[in-house]
Amino acid sequence: MKNRNKNINVPNALSVLRIILIVPFVIYFMNDEIVPAAVVLVISGLSDMFDGMIARRFHQFTELGQMLDPLSDKLTQGAVAVCLAIKQPILIPLLAIFILKEILMVGAACLLIGKSKRPGGSKWYGKVATTLFYISFTVIVALKGIWGIENLIVTITLLSITAAFMIYAFVQYAKVFLAILHSSDPQYSMDMQQVMDKKTNKP
Asked: Which of 74, 82, 95 is nearest to 156 (CA)?
């Protein structure tokens, strides 16, 4: 009997769900259907919260999950940020900060994998930054969609706070990246042949 693929679990499914939800969010938001867009964003945020809780509770941590979780966060945040910047061009500088941060983090993860090292998983400060992101954008789209309020001061304040914490999270992740890069601890090693064997169910 073949071993069950450990990558097929609820946390990973929720991460994939967040990626799928990007499509309806973009469609709703760009067509000014703000309430449905906000609902999709809330569902996405809840899935982000629950996947971590489920992974910890049932010990469903996988290397794929450690990559899928931040990837789904980055894709979702990027899609929302781009949509909002298109609607309000004054927010483009904040979008530039976000894009630069994400490019550097993805590049760092690829560098570690290239050196057969396991990228660090999500940390509390990354989750807080993500939570602030969802709160900020949900408030912004809800104000516009439900009450018809477009307060630029509120928008910039919320996004500035979120951007500041994202920068803080980036600095902390950079410290983790450097520690892993220069570490000889076997816990950070990634045996690529072993990963491939697992995928093909080889003993």
From this structure: 95
Residue 63 CB: number of other CB atoms within 10 A? 16
32-47 tens-digit pLDDT: 898 898 899 899 989 9
Q: Where does the chain have alpha helices with state H?
A: 10-30, 34-58, 63-87, 92-114, 124-147, 152-181, 192-199
CA 134 from chain centre, in angstroms, equals 11
Q: Which of 43, 73, 54 is nearest to 162 (CA)?
A: 73
What is the spatial distance between Cα 140 and Cα 130, in angstroms, rounded to a whole number?
Answer: 15
- Residue in 7, 4, 21 with CA at minimum distance from that of residue 77: 21
Identify residue 138 by its one-letter amino acid code: T
Give residue-wise pLDDT tens across range 66-123.
Answer: 778 888 888 898 898 888 888 878 778 777 877 888 788 888 888 888 887 877 777 8
